[in-house]
Amino acid sequence: MSEEQGFEPGRMALAVLLIASMLILMGGAAVAPALPVISAAFPNESEFVVSLIISIPSLGVAVFGFLVGIAADRIGKVRTLIFSLAVFTVCGVSAYFLSDMNAILIGRFLLGLGMAGIGVTTTALITEYYSGPEMVKIVGLQSAAMGIGTMCLEMGAVPSRNSDGGNPSSYT
Known about the structure:
single chain, 172 residues, mainly alpha, two-stranded antiparallel sheet, 4% strand
């Protein structure tokens, strides 16, 4: 039973759910190639603190996951998904505008809220909108979309040039 009486998910609803699912894995992986550049930008920070940029969103997911599920049940899955996408977007770009490592880490932690919301609500909406073999097919498509999102992210990394002849040596 969907949130709205008589709602039948079409291709657009499926596309939104699959595209949103692609974002989940990008929370940590998107910045991994930039760690050397981030370390250079924050020379007074330890390597451990800089590496938290990648892992702290997962802590946010663990902390906020249950709360997002409760919110989705109380205010609705679609509203929670929209809110989560907004949080993911704002927190995802916040580091560009911040110059303090603590503020960046707080933004990355809150990015976990968006990631948790996207993960919980997309899966919940799939199970609400579809049933039986069709639901199994859509969950498979969701997994494929997450894999494609990760592949596109990895292929989109730009090789940097090192100082010994300009050969690509790492991804930044």
